[in-house]
Amino acid sequence: MMTKDKRNAPAEELISIQVVNAIDCAFPTGSIMGKWFRGLKEKKFYATRCPSCGRTMTPPRGCCALCVVRSEEFVEVGPKGTVENYDIAYYASPDPLTGKVRSTPYAAVFVRMDGSDRDIFTHAIRDEDIPRLKRGVRVRPVWNEVRTGSIEDMLYFEIDA
Amino acid sequence: MKRVAICAVAQHEIKGNIWCKRFQEMLMDILEELQGETGFTFGGETGVKNIITCSDDFFDARTISDNAVNDVVGAGNYRGEQKMAQEGLNGIGYAMAVILSGHDDVIYLAGHCKESLTASRNQIANMAYDPFYGRCLGLDYLNTAGLQARAYMEKSRITQEQLAKVVVRARQWASRNAYANEKTQLNLGDVMFSPVLCDPIRSLHAYPVSDGAVGMLLASEERAREFTDNPVWITGFGNCMDDYFMGRRDLASSSALKKAAHQAYQMAGIKKPQKSVNLVEAMDCYAYQQPLWLEGLGLCEEGKGGDFIDEQGPARYNVNLSGGMLAGRPLMIGGLYGVAEAVLQLQGRAHEHQAADANCAVVQSTTGGAGQFQTVAVLER
Ligand SMILES: [Zn+2]
Predict the structure, then answer these.
(1) If we measure between CA atoms, which residue out of B81, B90, B87 comes closest to residue B59?
(2) Which fold has domain B4-119+209-226?
(3) How many domains does one find in chain A?
(4) Is B178 on the interface with A (CB under 8 A)?
(5) Based on CB atoms within 10 Å of each CB, which residue in A123, B14, B81, B177 is the most buried?
(6) What's the pTM?
(7) Residue A121's CATH number
(8) CA of B163 relative to ligand 1 center, distance in Å
(9) 3-class secondary-structure state, position B283
């Protein structure tokens, strides 16, 4: 056991070791998320609808968490929607693997897609539109020219005006 | 003492790569099967209010990985949920504690693991070691098992032929188990001359890469009959940790398992396990571990693992009639699958691989390099 004097001595860092943790992973998307990503490739948004309470889920989930029942009926929502909430980030965390930091400010928007029910889809907004962001504003998606079936198939929303 | 019942179990078929489903979808299948069998719900006064999940953050590639399955285990609509971040058999011990303490009287317990999500499960096991010493030396569960295999085989005089017998027998039983992963039949030579993975462990000594999900409903003695006419009782439980640092351990013997087993037997009132136990589900990730764990469980005499295999010891105690880990079960929930199998056996519902007259089962599981952490449960009907 350390004596009290030793505990009170100033701490000295001897050596600090830099480590980057990485594990190769491959995630099958299954029949529910798979349908969503296939949809993005075709510029479509597929939600699931709960057979019990009728709410939609975007992106789709195979189980309604409220009713705890399987929900595998797909409905198309959007492509336009209404901003319900948003957040502007002025400090970006570095990517844990590459250390790259995205440019700031950037904004995340909560969008209620047309045709959806009690459901919010989150994505980015075009940087130039940030000054005009407010609750209730109408937005439309901007698509990537090359689409592969990933969340980057959609670049961001832009204000629909 | 009050007892805790396992009312029903559901197992997802195990495969090397269940590419058509996410683990959430596998858990949804398990939930529906159990609800269909028992009629339990999440609503009202008598519905399930607390859930226990078992999963691994690194296999799921996200921290606090239970958050990702809240909906498909019934927790997403304002119910209690706790994650067992240890081998799933410990979820049984935790559920038992919840019920015996009076905190709740029904628990839904579910676990999942998809080893196929990573390029190599050895990468995950490597992450179990500290980032500046063990990890840099390349330690993982395979090569630490190699160290243990060498030490143990020398002590208990186990030959390559005896290890081959263990594997051949596992595959024979697996062929009768609808949920088992690897059912290809082998002969002794196939195993003895399979490629060396990590001397003295050969490729057919190691459990195959496995994806799976498993669930069960547990209840207090007072409520068990609401869900089943055929409850299985958890009568004993114990777990024990050995040293993280390999160099400080006696790898040829499992002190941690002996202590865990002692706790479980004592709680179950078992004085002579060799007389009482007539069914075993042991987590034999590698062939040498089956006799080693049976020594730790007090069913095989210490240092006599080799003779035990030749004298049909595994058959005498109905060891791993499911095929066990050697036929393929995912890490982290191998023990939970062992519970599911033992429950079916004790309920007389194991069909093609049913043991005759089993009434006292021991389930053992392990995590960490070379069996660092050990868990034992005793189940009886
Ligand atoms: Zn619903």
Answers:
(1) B87
(2) Peroxisomal Thiolase; Chain A, domain 1 (3.40.47)
(3) 1
(4) no
(5) B14
(6) 0.95
(7) 2.40.50.840
(8) 52
(9) coil
* Cα separation of the two ends of chain A: 70
Residues in B touching A25 (Cβ below 8 Å): 61, 117-119
Please indicate whether, in this complex, the C-beta atoms of B119 and A26 are within 8 angstroms of each other.
yes
Q: Give contacts of A33 with chain B, Cβ < 8 Å.
A: 22
Find out whether B183 and B171 touch, Cβ atoms under 8 Å. yes
- Domain of A60? 28-159
Q: Please, which residues 10-29 of chain A have a Cβ atom closer than 8 Å to chain B?
A: 17, 19, 21, 23-29
- A-B contacts at Cβ under 8 angstroms: 69
Strand partners, B373: B241, B367
Q: What is the pLDDT along chain B (381 residues), one digit of tens a residue?
A: 789 999 999 999 999 999 999 999 999 999 999 999 999 999 889 999 999 999 999 999 999 999 999 999 999 989 999 999 999 999 999 999 999 999 999 999 999 999 999 999 999 999 999 998 999 999 999 999 999 999 999 999 999 999 999 999 999 999 999 999 999 999 999 999 999 999 999 999 999 999 999 999 999 999 999 999 999 999 999 999 999 998 899 999 999 999 999 999 999 999 999 999 999 999 999 999 999 999 999 999 999 999 999 999 999 999 999 999 999 999 999 999 999 999 999 999 999 999 998 999 999 999 999 999 999 999 999
ipTM over 0.95: no
Q: Is residue A3 part of a domain?
A: no
- Top residue of B28, B40, B118, B120 to mutate, by most chain A CBs within 10 Å, is B28
